[in-house]
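User: Hey, quick favor. My workstation is busy. Could you predict this chain's structure for me?
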Amino acid sequence: MGAVKVGIVVPYSWSFWGGVVEHAELQADALRRLGCEVKTIMGNDPPGQFTRVLHPRHGRHGMPPPDVIPIGRSVIVPANGTLPNIILSPRSVFRIKQALARERFDVVHLHEPMTPTPCIATLAMCTAPMVATFHASGDLGWMKVGKWAWGFLAERLDHRIAVSERARESAARWLPGDYEIVPNGVLIPAQADASGRQNRIVFAGRHEASSASSRRRSSRANCSRRRRSSRPRSAARASGSSSSGRWRARRPSSPQRSRDTAT
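Assistant: No problem, here it is.
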């Protein structure tokens, strides 16, 4: 039996870095280390004046790696308090259909599965088992239209994952069902020198309120106690509000396993 062939579908552009894009790329790396063959279907905005008009911020506008199947340009669509780069071109639907027919994936993993057009088209046309990860939390007001227009396609999912309890609550409000919570993680280097540290902590996160503020207060108190006992220079700094469960460091159980997403 050959390697399991996994398709990862991302509704955003490879050209612009973001949390979901990073998650999908690291997931693909983890699956390859497990022996899977992985291809990622997502958008791409090649360099040029047209891209500069559509996207004022800089991105990585070179050619995507061979394991990425580009399906079209993206546009900025305000959603849930952010400005994601989403692929809305009707032409992308035909490219997705061609990719699914050509690659014949054994399993397909969709990120933000209710986002058009890549994920919606995949849900409608894919015949392989499908897993989905729900990342967003909040009101998800755009789902008022999405649930009515294509929410029924969520019934085609074989397994649902949420990256946090808040993400699960947000998704289940519109799409009731069973969700497995698999938190995001952070990369842990294979080797790290723990000496010479100054007990400095930085919290960098999103704008939504969460329990992160209480964790920051606890961290400050712990640093203060350590400073009094061992006299290191300690500091705790906050930047934004890190969403609950969003970033959690995990120690891999073996060198072969990465931090999170072999799902």
